[in-house]
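Slide 14.
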Amino acid sequence: MKQKVLEISNLWVSFEKNSEVFHALRGIDLTLYRKEALSLVGESGSGKTTAARASLGLVPLAKGKVLLLGKDIQHCSRKELIETRQRCGYISQNPYDSIPPTLTTLDAVAEPLVICKRMNKKEAREKAKEMLSLCGITDEVILNGRVRFSLSGGQKQRVALARALATDPEVIFADEPTSMQDASNRGDILDVLQRYVKKGSALVLTTHDLYLAAAATERCIILFHGRVMETGPSKAILKTPLHFYTKALLDALPGLDKKIKRPPLKQGEPNIIVSGCPFLARCPEGRKKCQETPPLREVAPGHFVACWLI
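Slide 15: predicted structure.
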């Protein structure tokens, strides 16, 4: 039997600004199993990062439940929450803020090994050197230089990857882990992540790129303004996208041969109220029925879509 490592039920996350409430996540469900790679796909503001951070208890939940490694993150003690997080790895979208800038590159990766694995400093630095080599950083000057002065953005992202994976996490949350890499390094980073999945870790990858999601994960969830639009096997969604938003994401990717001509999207603001389809204002086929919230319906084995027209 497959072992669940993350279970999210009816998750709502809300933020208040200028006395107005914005719902970043609106009732999403998610289940992740050990040795599984799952991607959260959508544009900026779709809720991908919020979902990853909410899974770790880094943002307050308005409603719903998150079970991470068997622990209810809303109701476990601070000690239990820290112990649970130490079994996870988190690669932030912004490595500039997630790595201590005054440490050397080696010490930045060794630090979680000292704290979480109780290694002495020498052992931790040796392990850190192995991890950095795995992530493509071997230059002694860079290894012993301070993070603030020695690293480019792409190198900092790889250091963040090494730092997150050094403790052999059971669940990896990778937030746009290739966003600062050139094409030659992206594949290497995905290979490293997939190596850990094969060893037994579970992976949650956030990205706006459906091609990257299909290459790196078995299953993906398409998010738009906090709602699940479509979910299913990554390659099936890439080959046969069903929701109008999923099709729009594919059409927006550069360098593709646009043989399929689709109706243009409407110019409109997304529906940020609680009910109705959030994509209605931009959908070329929107109907009056779409003012009601569409349920996720299974249209093929394991492939679900939230659209009244499909």
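Speaker note: The mean pLDDT is 91.
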